[in-house]
Fold this sequence. Notes:
4 helices, 139 residues, mainly alpha, disordered C terminus
Amino acid sequence: MATLVEALPESTLHEVIGLLVRLVEAAGALVIFIGAAWAFAQFVRAGLRGRGRGAEFNGIRLGLGRFLVLGLEFQLAGDVLRTAVAPSFAEIGQLAAIAAIRTALNYFLGREITQERAEVERGDTVPPPNIKGTKGLPT
């Protein structure tokens, strides 16, 4: 019995993989867009209520960070799919570079989310500086 790869011509397989890549990357972009829209709406709502300070602002950043991390994971999955069928050395090199950059972004975003979460749980929020009363600046 022939395997799926043997049953499909390589050109058809490339087309199917190309469609899957576009779907996965679109899902990643949609996740990031939804996260940005959600964060903006939360920011505006907090500002209108006059509570856009400290812990609430950090909570909004944490939520946006989670969306960004998830969206980047989808984007990386799309890159891996793109090189699934007979990749060239150039494509493998591109995937390695993209994977390294996105992994680094995910690492630092995850680290920042962890730090922000710890600050929120401890209540270590610092109010924004009051420029008018700051020492050394003209009032």
